[in-house]
Write a structure and sequence with these properties.
This protein is of the alpha/beta class. Helices cover 48% and strands 12% of the residues. Helix 3 links the parallel strand 3 and strand 4. The longest helix has 28 residues. The radius of gyration is 30 Å and the shape is elongated. The C terminus is likely disordered.
Amino acid sequence: MSRRVLIVDDEKGVRSSLEKLLSYESYKTFCAADGATALELVGGERIDIVLLDIKMPGMDGLEVLGRLKEMQPDLPVVIISGHGNIATAVEATKLGAFDFIEKPIDLERLLLTVRNGITQGDLARQNVQLKERAGVKTQIIGEHHEILTIMETIERVAPTNARVLIMGENGTGKELVARKLHELSKRSAEPFIEVNCAAIPEELIESELFGHEKGSFTGAISQRIGKFELADGGTLFLDEVGDMSLSAQAKVLRVLQESVFERVGGTETKKVDVRVIAATNKDLLGEAAENKFREDLYYRLNVVPIHIPPLRERRSDIAILAEYFLNEAAVELGTAPKKFSRRALDILMDYSWPGNVRELMNLIERLCILTSGDTITEDDLPQLTLTREGDILKDPFSLRTYQEFKDFTEKEFLVKKLQENNGNVSRTARQLGMQRSNLYKKLEKYDIEFRKGNTLETD
């Protein structure tokens, strides 16, 4: 990945000589003859360091330096002046200049300063990224065999550059898996850039991914860097990739094949080194059969598939996740640790969680805030009970077979009627027009708790 140097000087000879020197040292160079052009370039290109003259028409170097630091505080700027004095050097340092070099320029010193400045800029950006990642949890919790298999796959594929397609329902943790892949990769010190394809209007997705040139469409009042450029050297996470427009899919396919693209409205071919991880909650092959997704792009993305099961298919992890989220919430909220009663945990494990892990996490945080005692009981789960009643209407439609649908709804119906009759099996059987022995068999079949022989069962 070539490092990028912006040369800002009103003298054409200086710009030309510095451009030749830096190009010979394998730097990619950009040139500006005035401050306004320099600011526009920094706003529309990824720049690693700026060489900035002091005396220029219009905005002088110190004013440009101040504007640059407002735009990108971590961008190293080297001031170059033919009229150097201590006062100017002090003022430049106060404004955040990395170094101050006088004309005529010592080329060896300049090259050393450029290398050191880029290194400092890298360290500053990495420090920011580390602080951002410090608040992002990447620990994958669970002991279900499918989760253990996913962890093993992540450890194997993360150090490679192989593309990964993460599949699963909303709320199962697709972004968490993507971040874990980046964290364990050789690109972990570089950017992790996320694009939610479902949240971006179709007419703007190409600009978001590839950037655009000034005036390329209505509203494009300046250049813009796209996500592929921002992720150069790192990882680009295309979340909900199945919602991407077909025209954008064609351009993404080209980047995956050739590692090059053009900005919207641009002619310059840009080369990037990006690892792409994609995620979807859709059946992409099914979408391809309906001409809603490119089949060739699917196979490019699906080098290593990872399928995350919904929470209802790994019920053994519900208690583990609930305890983990409860402890995490207590720490983040600064409250005393809490615990679940056995019955509360049973209810959590019996619920089908249409919102998956995200729904569980949100509920636990709410319980941690609203529960006054140190133990969360079944009486503290009113919202879950209300949602559970709604399951009969919405969740069965995600089941795979008609028999599963029948069993699910019959169980929910019997639980509800038994609750209405305070656990009285005889009264429930009469209400349903069913023999009591037949109701017992169904309660045992669905593992519904009741007390056989309880005096409440006879009127």
